[in-house]
Structure prediction request, 578 residues.
Amino acid sequence: MDAIIQTNGLSKDYAAKGGRVHALDHLNLLVNQGEIFGYLGPNGAGKTTTIRMLLDLIRPTAGSASIFGMAVRANSVAIRRRTGYLPGELNLWDNETAADIVRYFGQVRGGVDARYVRELADRLDFDMSKKMRSYSTGNKRKIGIILALMHKPELLILDEPTSGLDPLMQQVFIQLMQEARQNGQTVFLSSHMLSEVQAVCDRVSIIRSGKLQTVDSVTALTNVDFRWVTLRLRESVSRVLLDAVPGAGEITVDGNSVRLRLTGEIDPLIRALGDRYIVDLRTQDPTLEEVFLTYYGDLPAVNGHSRRA
Amino acid sequence: MVGSVFVEMLRRHWRQAVFWGLGIGAITFLQIIVLPDVDALQQLSELMETIPPAFAQMFGLNDTEYLATPEGYVATRTFGLLLLLVSIYAIVAGLNVTANDEERGVMDNVLALPISRWQLVLEKLLAYAVMSVLVVAIICLLTILAVTLTPALGIDIGKILLGSVNVLPGMLVVLAFTALAGTVVRSKGLATALAVIFLVGSYFVDTLGRDAVNSFVATLRTLSFHSYYDGTNVLRFGFNAGNFTLLLVVALIMGALSLAAYQRRDIGV
Prediction:
């Protein structure tokens, strides 16, 4: 598979009071053709810094980046011709109508299909005749999506694309991304919304404090060796008994119901319950959010990844 | 597509240029329409002679005899201060080249388009240069209209045209300097401050340097772009092609520097 985006030791430092801040620290990333790649991290993790370097809006302190096999600095115009971009915070000219802005961007790009623009506007239920200052946050997001998609680019770089969109429009956006995948377009999608990433992405990278924590498929990331187990018994069970089960943690006993986090196999738990009658047993894989928290929050390590404070 | 930014800037801002032209043109129009008669001008000339020379010089009142003529009055009152007035428009336009869009966070969207930074700055500079010509053309037309409505003054329309054209290079210098400031520094406020300091500083260095002969300020005056613009004497002695060309070259150099400066730095958000 061809690499569409590749970064090698990409770093960005900023001068700040009391020294320099490492906004991005030796990022090595590979995004393949035709995949929807999630770039996940909390606010301030370095997501937007990465995107702005990919678009040559800011220059790296060290390292390099290439898109379509071309160095981003030397070939920025050629790269941007084949790329659609939606910034995290969309600012446009308040006194211009959305239609005027679409027309202007279309003229600069050249070869934009007006019918496709209208189709996008219809699907997003967006009226382009108003001035920018009169649009709500969600509508501004819609014009951003239209501007990013209207020239059917080979690569879409989207920063927090559904932020501000209502649930109905989020579904439309997910459909658009699925269509992009079918058309062979590559999508680099930055987000801090796990549900968005889980819904559309093939692979996910997690970034924290400018450092890449992991890159894996959504399936692999969620297929970790712990799960939530919920048991309903005919009689109550002692917490001491459950504490002794290897791999059991975060145990909650509520009358005859038990909920615990189990790492490893389930057999030791069943054996520990002995001849107690199990009315119901349910297991639930961790959500991407819980995986995410293992990198940022308070959950124990999974798949050998070290726990982060 | 080449020229798209240029055309878009003209589409968006030509009305603003027309209003600036009409506004400043109204001032020049009124200055001529309410021009005192020749006797009143003579009295004004005598009054001017009582003013301390340095003070009179500050307002471009060098030759009180010439001032007593209708042409001298127009040359001093209208064209003596015209560069300062049109420079305000030039600063506003220069900030539109990059500083305003960068301050608003619009530049990320614009530079995500397939257009190089130098092309963006060049097309915008050219568009605002054209609109600067439009501003001056409207002022010129209103001034000619005023002169036509007052034939008794006997002011040559050709000289009005010459005085108007003469203001253009200085105006373009201010436009290019402001654009350069906006491409070098990220802050719009700082770029504005630099442009105002450049304009006002140049004006005062020129004015003070003219009086303080054989002083440091007189030497410094050669650095003031105002010293190469003589709005009064262009009507009296004709066009100074050397100064005109020099200011145009300075504007071109500053424009070229702004293209280069914007290539180098990070775009602010």
